[in-house]
Amino acid sequence: MPPTSHPEAKNMTGTDETSCEPVIKLDKLVKFFGRFAALRGISESFVAEQLYVVVGDNGAGKSTLLRVVAGLTQPSQGSVTLLGACNIRNVAHSVGYMGHAPLLYDELSGMENLRYFAGLYGIADDSVCRAAMRQVGLDPKLQRRVGQYSQGMRQRLSLARAVLHDPKLILLDEPFSNVDAHSAREMATVLGQVRDRGKTIFVVTHQTALMEPVADEFVQMSEGKIVSRSRQRPSPQSSTLSSELERI
Amino acid sequence: MLVSSISVTRSTLLKDIRLEWRSKDAINSMLFFSLLVVVIFSFAFNPNAEESRRIAGGLIWVAFLFAAVVALNQTWARELRNQVLDAYRVSPAPPNALFLAKAVGNFLFVTILELLMAPLFVVFYQLRSEGPLWQLVVVALLGTWALVVNGTFFAALSIRTRNREIMLPLILFPISIPALLAMVDTTTIVLTGDGTPDFWLKMLLVYDVVFTLVCLLLFESVLNAE
Amino acid sequence: MKYLNIGFIIFTLALLGFSTYQALFVAPTEQTMGDVQRIFYYHAPTAWVAGVCFFVNFLASIAYLWKRSLNADALAAASAEVGVVFCTIVLITGPIWAKPVWGIWWTWEARLTSTLVLWLIYVSYLILRRFAVGSQTQTLAAALAIFGFVDVPIVYMSIRWFRTQHPQPVIAGGQGSGLDPVMWHAFLWNLLAFTCVGIAFIVTRYRLQKLENEVEAAHAQRAIAGGVQ
Lengths: 248, 226, 229
Hints:
- The complex is a heterotrimer.
- By secondary structure, chain A is α/β, with parallel strands linked by helices.
- Chain A is built from 8 helices and 9 strands.
- Chain A has a single domain, classed as Rossmann fold (3-Layer(aba) Sandwich), CATH 3.40.50.300.
- The longest helix of chain A is centred in the last third of the chain and has 16 residues, at 181-196.
- Chain C starts with a helix and ends with a helix.
- The chains are: A alpha/beta, B mainly alpha, C mainly alpha.
């Protein structure tokens, strides 16, 4: 039985009222790549302190949605309001993003990578970087260059990079790809703990079974639109390859 | 929370130097390429002939230009590997700090190449300076910055095109013609001791100031154009 | 609007006919160069129009970066293309003039050289427009256009200084060459005619670009409503 947390319950335990305010508001969001509409008019709100799992077939627009929210891609039409701000650049210090690609420098070690990215957020303290590495299960003393990491270690370091500045909103694009089952389960647990500390998390993934214990809401996308939002894990009805593989 | 531009510029510059040192990607091939260029030019333009000393100015700067373009293309290539540029763009760090760090890094790199290629030219062409050498040094520095500041900007532009490697020289060369003219003419003036490069010094200064400003004004739009 | 356009084009053609008549028949033959000098009535006005086109491109590019208006970008594209065409005409009429007068096809004199550099800059702009990917094209092109135009005065100054140090034969009369009043007359008619030709081309090309934008927008609306392409 998934221990979901209801926003109303949170309020009754005395946390701040703003947890009912939408942290993300999308208004008629459209994104084109040439003539292809990756996002076809999305109007949704998402409240804070929840773990949202974004699912859907390939090409549904999940990664594009995340990139638009992160401010990496400008919408073709419509608007995004993030943490109350219309201009995403103004709240960049409260947003953490983990992309499909590792977003790391192969020739630097783990700590060197984190130290550099921490500097971009104005964090000069090494202990923050060390704590972030430990939190994802990596050894801060490791001198090995990231290029020689296993895929699982790379994903974990990328996650550490995304959260080391303690952002209020965390956007993760396929964090479990090519990660072994054990590490993936650990990462999922860590995400739940981060959400419990009051953060809002969006995870794009195909591995819904993995996220079920910690997810608050499953957001299903198809062909550039959000087609359903529910607390239940969506059943793999369509016989697409990804859902077939998932059942294996 | 405002992130200090200077500290981001410095940390990015140091990071780039460290990356360059560790991978030795660009450096080794660049050094060899520069040597090749000097040698090929020496075969093409017979260095023993008296006239060739008068065109040495042109030869040297064209050689630097081609070597610099290869170096400039590398700078942003590193940020595209693993899409790590996204991590910078998502952060609150100011885009201009990134630009300055890249431009200064390129400037150092191209200057090192020039310091390596110049003695080769002097030796191969038996060059002697009739005029004050300090003028040549000043113009070399100003001219290199002129090439590098626009080159860094245009390299960022050209990585978003379908034929990235050739696009950079295509858009950089025409706009750099005044700077090239300045550097070539000054080199000739100083080597032959004939005339004064004052005008070129002033022109390069204006060029550097104007284009550095334009780059800083427009970089953010280009970085976030997606 | 359409009839205004057609009317303007007819007017322009008539004007061009009149100015050509002025250039070829009314204006007196030049003393030293003979009839070849009549190219001046094409060479100089086209240079002027090219310059105006690039200035329009500069303003339109700034307008695009400021307002993100696709119409501004359409104007930038149109004016750059027309400017390059006129610039090409200058670079062709120059040698046609130079050969009979100086016996050489090309002379590296200040104005011709500067025009060549201008041509190079804007051809590179057109190439960038062609090879940029997606919706970034407008932003990247606008940025390059600003660089290009800011460079223009610097190019002229540098080349002129270089040429005063190392002189070359000059096309179209150096300093102090006056124009006979009738010649001046013919020159002004041609200036007006070519400006109108330039405007006609820019407007047509601009409307074409706007149509293309509208087609893209229609496709886009269909993509939003209908489904995956």
